[in-house]
Amino acid sequence: MSIRHGLLALLERGPRYGSQLRSEFESRTGSTWPLNVGQVYTTLARLERDGLVAPGGEDAAGHTLYVITDTGSAELRQWYERPVDRTNPPRDELSIKLAMAVGAPGVDIRAVIQSQRHATVQAMQDYTRLKARALGAIESGEADERDDLAWLLVLEQLIFQTEAEARWLDHSEARLVRLSGQTPRTPAEPAPPQATATEPAAGATAGRPRTARPRRG
Predict the structure, then answer these.
(1) N or C: which end of the chain has fewer CB within 10 A?
(2) pTM of the full predicted structure?
(3) Nearest to 194 by CA among 185, 206, 204, 186
(4) CA 113 – CA 110 distance, rounded (Å)
(5) Exposure of 132 by Cβ count < 10 A (0-12 exposed, 13-18 middle, 19+ buried)?
(6) What is the distance between the alpha carbons of residues 153 and 89, in angstroms, rounded to a whole number?
């Protein structure tokens, strides 16, 4: 996830200081990828070194402001136009875990799959519930529509991701069953019907999700 380009995108809207950039970044993404101030200022220092941003004076409270340069704006345009490179996918802990569990002594790989499936379905339900809340905020006009729409797009991507993960887990267990000749296990919790990015899942849980949109003051 490109923090540097995310900060450039925010700076294109006008001068910002570090804490302000962190707050706006987290608001736009619903705190899905939280930042700390140290990360923000380290990234700003690198952007300044590369000529993509420059100091822009201070605000009334004495905060050091940063502005995007012409070079930074050109870099941002190229980022928007350039497809995300998938030739070197990020390491996925779940894939690594299952790969290592195959043939590992004393490890029931199907139990590992069953446990992950339960957690994946729970996450899917949480994201779907948050999606319904974001849609409600947009339709009611009670919040910043731009930020809520951005958060909605992030949520829908997370829903699609968890749906794909649940299907992959089912496929992996079926593969193991075919190779071992065993009877498939009944999942501990079935996936909710139609838990897609276009329709809320039935029976979404009421518990506090792991990923939550920060409350607005």
Answers:
(1) C
(2) 0.67
(3) 204
(4) 5
(5) middle
(6) 21
Residue percentage of the chain with pLDDT more than 70 = 81
Least confident of 16-25, 27-36, 59-68: 27-36
Handedness of CA 191, 193, 198, 203 (dihedral sign): negative
Q: Which residue has the tokens 């809520």?
A: 148
Other Cβ atoms closer than 10 A to 66? 27
Contacts of 95 (CB under 8 A, 6+ apart): none
**Mean pLDDT, residues 155-176:** 94
Stretch 111-124: mean pLDDT, rounded?
95
Give pLDDT tens digits for 23-39: 999 888 877 778 889 99
Q: Are 163 and 155 in contact (CB under 8 A)?
A: no
pLDDT of residue 180: 76
Nearest to 127 by CA among 169, 161, 97: 161
